[in-house]
Amino acid sequence: xxxxxxxxxxxxxxxxxxxxxxxxxxxxxxxxxxxxxxxxxxxxxxxxxxxxxxxxxxxxxxxxxxxxxxxxxxxxxxxxxxxxxxxxxxxxxxxxxxxxxxxxxxxxxxxxxxxxxxxxxxxxxxxxxxxxxxxxxxxxxxxxxxxxxxxxxxxxxxxxxxxxxxxxxxxxxxxxxxxxxxxxxxxxxxxxxxxx
Length: 196
Hints:
Elements: H1 6-20, H2 27-46, H3 50-73, H4 79-100, H5 112-135, H6 150-164, H7 168-195
Helix pairs in contact: 1-3, 2-3, 2-4, 3-6, 4-5, 5-7, 6-7
């Protein structure tokens, strides 16, 4: 959804890229820094320090913008960098969901661990369906779209962790919604690829 409105964010991305390109780190180093912060976020989630987890997850999400912005501004975009960014994104999502396994959520229709597994499955399948469509040459351009792409998922995961500071129940509600929408997105992309 946000991808379709990308032009709106281009100006902000350019400003971020210009500001952070002055720091002597390559785009790939920014990507690895986001991974380190994701590990720290997971540590704080596991040990139930949700305030610090929220702060560090915000930084992870912000660096998710920085690495690409710096690459574009410094004209250092590479296929390897894009590949690395995608892989680190998947690892980051896994780490956050892994940390949430240690939270004592109440149950909602099913045990909360099932919702977490569904969230993990949906977030991974959304990306895999895109990669498989490209690999099998079902699409001529990169498969995009769906109700819950990576930016939306990251925002919702941030809100899930933020809500842990207030209410486990409301955080779980949002987790369930995110899990369902992530899987719906994978289905949408599969349908789109198969129609092409």
